[in-house]
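name: query_chain
kind: protein
chains: 1
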Amino acid sequence: MDYTWHFQIVWDYRAVFVRGAIMTAQITFWATLIGLTLGLALGLMRRSEFFLLRAPAATFIELFRSTPALVQLVWIYYSLPILTGLQLSNTTSVSIGLGLHAAAYFAEIFRAGVNSISKGQWDAARAIGMSYSKAMRRIILPQAVRRMIPPFINEFASLIKLTTLGSALAVYELLHEANNLINNTYRPLEVYTVLALAFAVIIYPIIYASQRLEQRWQLRQ
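structure:
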């Protein structure tokens, strides 16, 4: 195949990638904030002995884990206004949708982390008169969070990649900006190559940090 690469075109439009990267970072930040906050609440609710807390949390988690993220984003953007009259912008819809999607996975990470703490820790807390919430806050969560860090980082990396779904709602993140650039330059190979490298540069250090943390944790066992 006789093809001449012209990466100079991509360099000339580098501001497009910077703009897309900023939007990707903004969506990732808000989605992570929503996911962690809601995920902690859902994880604790799913561990509850009370059915009225456990059942809604389990339903939410399984619903968002069992349906495609793209379908969730489209539903929030197009269906929510019909049902509630509340019209969200495309960027807000993507941030909230990915946050809810991530919350289902963060909740399971929280639940697994708490469950990994031995029953003896709970018994010791009760023996000195601690309530459930106090034991959770002072004894269980500080130990569990350290074990949760590697899967949290992996989920965070996955969330960054999921931001590309925003292109379906015309959010100007990296993929959407790349597609617009291709329409203007007709150089898909160069643009997609640089796009792939950009995501690799962003995500690989995160994955590497997760692996290193996991290795350090295993050495301490």
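note: The chain has a mean pLDDT of 89.
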